[in-house]
Amino acid sequence: MKAFKPNLDLNRTLELQLWREATTIFMTAGHGGCGPHGLALAALQRGFPCEIFVNGTGVLFQDSVRSPEKREVIQLVHEDFVEQVLRHKIPLHYKLAGSAELMRSFSAGGIPLVLISTYRLTRERAPHWVIITGCDDLYFYIHDPDNSDAREGDDRINIAVLKKDFERMARYGRQGSKAVVIVYPPQNPTPLTKN
User: This protein's superkingdom (predicted)?
Assistant: First the structure.
């Protein structure tokens, strides 16, 4: 969002507001994760058009909890998010956003937020969202907002990742869930993507 609104104050309050609006409530341990539908709705609420790519209609993160009650809550949250996405006419594509699609959206002025497994970055298996900050013929350049491992800010910006490696890390869980939210500048129409 700051890329499109340079004066936006990025602070903990905004971070927590976004999380509260996008959370799936539960995960294996700790606080719930953020799914693509909730993130897109939070962006739209702030005036940023977006589109969503997911590789299936399943419920993201539901397999990460064992309790039937928690699974039911995640299911309800997911269904509500999907209903809101459809009501707000956010383009929802049930297909992969591969390298060509990510490059297309980036060229069209969008900023892709991509769900990854942190394993290739931190050796921990956790879902995590990164931002694509650039691309060329061989690499995607990503920004990793996670500062929990004490890396300096400069070490988390424009990290070069070979496209073939990025495609392997851009999935989460045993099911290989893939999700991308592409955020566009305010007042710009979302480019039409063929489903």
Answer: Bacteria
Question: Does the pLDDT value for residue 82 go beyond 80?
Answer: yes
- Three-state DSSP class for residue 105: helix
Q: d(Cα 133, Cα 68) in Å, to the nearest integer?
A: 39
For the chain, list the strands marked E by DSSP.
50-54, 92-94, 111-117, 127-135, 139-143, 159-162, 179-183
Contact (CB, 8 A) for 27 and 64: yes
Residue 156 has pLDDT above 80, yes or no: no
CA 55 – CA 36 distance, rounded (Å): 11
* Domain range for 48: 12-183
| Domain count across the chain | 1
Q: How confident is the model at residue 183 (pLDDT cuts 50, 70, 90)?
A: very high
Residue 152 included in any domain: yes
Q: Which residue has the tokens 């489903």?
A: 195
Query: pTM for the complete prediction?
Result: 0.87
| Angstrom distance (rounded) from CA 25 to CA 135 | 33
Cβ 24 vs Cβ 60: under 8 Å: yes
